[in-house]
Amino acid sequence: MARGLNKAMLIGHLGTDPEMRVTPSGQSVVNFTLATNESFKDSGGNLQERTEWHRIVAWGKLAEICNQYLKKGRQVYVEGRLQTRSWEDNKTGEKKYTTEIICSDMQMLGSGRDQGGQGYDNSTSYQQPASRKQSFGNNNPEESAPGSETEKDDLPF
Amino acid sequence: MARGLNKAMLIGHLGTDPEMRVTPSGQSVVNFTLATNESFKDSGGNLQERTEWHRIVAWGKLAEICNQYLKKGRQVYVEGRLQTRSWEDNKTGEKKYTTEIICSDMQMLGSGRDQGGQGYDNSTSYQQPASRKQSFGNNNPEESAPGSETEKDDLPF
Amino acid sequence: MARGLNKAMLIGHLGTDPEMRVTPSGQSVVNFTLATNESFKDSGGNLQERTEWHRIVAWGKLAEICNQYLKKGRQVYVEGRLQTRSWEDNKTGEKKYTTEIICSDMQMLGSGRDQGGQGYDNSTSYQQPASRKQSFGNNNPEESAPGSETEKDDLPF
Amino acid sequence: MARGLNKAMLIGHLGTDPEMRVTPSGQSVVNFTLATNESFKDSGGNLQERTEWHRIVAWGKLAEICNQYLKKGRQVYVEGRLQTRSWEDNKTGEKKYTTEIICSDMQMLGSGRDQGGQGYDNSTSYQQPASRKQSFGNNNPEESAPGSETEKDDLPF
DNA sequence: TTTT
DNA sequence: TTTT
Fold first, then answer.
1. Of D28, D27, D36, D127, residue with least CA distance to D79
2. CA C10 – C1' E2 distance (Å)?
3. pLDDT tens digits, residue range D89-136?
4. Residue D104 falls within a domain, yes or no?
5. Could you tell me which of D66, A105, B133 has the C-alpha nearest to residue C9?
6. How many domains does chain B have?
7. CB contact under 8 A, C37 and B98
8. Are the beta carbons of B44 and D123 separated by less than 8 Å?
9. Strands (E), chain C
10. Is D15 helix (H, G, I), strand (E, B) or coil?
11. Is residue D130 included in any domain, yes or no?
12. Domain range holding B82?
């Protein structure tokens, strides 16, 4: 359960193809960068553009889906939580920090035609289970009875 | 899975105590209203206040927690999806519509001392599982190994 | 200023062309509907689809931009606040309620090629000023010095 | 105007009193850190707690309000955009990166009684103007109109 | 009434 | 460095 809210919501384009790896314990992780663009006027009244780059991390099945369907240039919606991790620079021994968005929901936007798409279903989205967050039963039990196989399928399409 | 985003996020105070019922199939549902307040200046420059009322619905364990811990006046954060349902007015036979927020995440805010609180843990929050939404594995499998008992407990405190 | 949070965030497709009108006081208003789609498995394990329809309202320049660039079928991101207004049914005299999203930010998504697009810049977004909300100076004054003409232009493209 | 969405939403407690400074050009800036807490069960099924720390930056009037009313320990809602800036470490000459949330909306939560509060209006919130974002007129001019009946009903149900 |  |  969260005690406090920690949420990031982004719409942007992938700057790189997703990079997939598998942890020693056998879990899938994917990393990619996402650019969000913003225009503003500077103090001289000239229209300027700023691009902000975000580091996205996804785990498990969501990682696999990102790896399979996302490509550099693809427009996506990403929702997740902010996480800053520290690591030691091998060369200097210094402690460094990186802030990442741990993705819990991803949606492909647009038609995918000019996005390097090759026949995927571009309007599908994917959401992580809330199992880590101490769940409290079904959201709407009229739709999904106890014992249904809802979560046992691997892929929804 | 969502195809598209449908999200509401509210911070406000309960206008009523939660009302709990159990469906014929044995599922818990809770309803309450939430007031969000906004101030603005009218065209005369005078500060005006507007209160917007929202109808909140929660299912399952989240319903039970709302029922147990929330009281009229309590300040909460509510996240959910918008849903408009129609029903027939018994007296006139007319079709009517109500828009509700189907709650998937709730957090109690503040210290609870002057909120009618009687000893509850005011900083706990609760989130629905994403089981209805075709999940894809654990959010961060390093923390919650396959086969762990994460979701088998009833209450997180 | 808001006292409380009242926010809706949607990604969906327009179900209708925007309908524009001008109020007696000369203000532009636009209305359109937005569909958000969600798939889920029913208790029998079958994939079901649900479409939720939302009523979107935009005012002022944002209304004009919606009117000019949006078309039925267009995929957009919409952010706004929930507002329920009541009106009297002319035929029955009954009081009725409608919940709408008062749009404060809109973005066109995708490439626009197969969306009825006719040469507009599809990646532009538009955001309402916060003038009604008791503002407190510039967000980042290094970028927009006092006295700059930031808000005097009508159209950003 | 944004082209793409870049939004962070946080509810947490200040880890430090806000630190205010004034830029050479005379603009106010405030910095503080915000802790968001999350509980989860580890793979052994034990309840663990994680605290995530966020660096918040506010400009202009919003900076002044944060400086005046916020204190270490205060619970707040913060909304803003993610921004990563780089700087050179004086000692090592290395390039380093920091991700901050440029605050555009802030709300004090709770009653403020045990939060070091000294008579401020604890339920006030503050929102930046959207002047940098190329605004398009009034959000809802019907509300600013003298004598409109829009807001006179109390309860919609 | 949208989209895939 | 916060909070419960």
1. D127
2. 13
3. 887 788 889 999 999 999 999 875 545 444 444 445 677 776 443 323
4. yes
5. A105
6. 1
7. no
8. no
9. 2-3, 5-14, 19-22, 28-41, 47-59, 75-88, 95-108, 125-127
10. coil
11. no
12. 8-41+48-108
Instruction: Note whether B5 contacts C9, CB cutoff 8 Å.
Output: yes
What CATH number does residue D64 fall under? 2.40.50.140
C80: chain B residues, CB-CB within 8 Å = none
Q: Looking at strand E, which nucleotides approach a protein CB closer than 7 A?
A: 1-4
pTM of the model as a whole: 0.82
Q: Which residues contact B49 (CB under 8 A, 6 or more apart)?
A: B37, B38, B39
Residue C114 covered by a domain: no
Which chain B residues are within 8 Å of A143, Cβ to Cβ? 132
Q: In whole angstroms, what is the distance from residue C7 CA to residue B152 CA?
A: 33
Q: Distance in angstroms, CA of C71 to C1' of E2?
A: 11
Interchain pair D133, A53: CB under 8 A: no
Number of H helices, E strands in chain A: 1, 8
Q: Is pLDDT of D42 > 90?
A: no
Residues in chain D, total: 157
As a whole number of angstroms, the distance between CA A66 and CA A30 comes to 7
Any domain includes B152: no
D41 band by pLDDT with thresholds 50, 70 and 90? confident
Number of residue pairs across A and C with CB atoms under 8 Å?
Answer: 72
Which residue's entry shows tokens 């991700």?
D99
Task: Give the position of tokens 């999200």.
Answer: B7
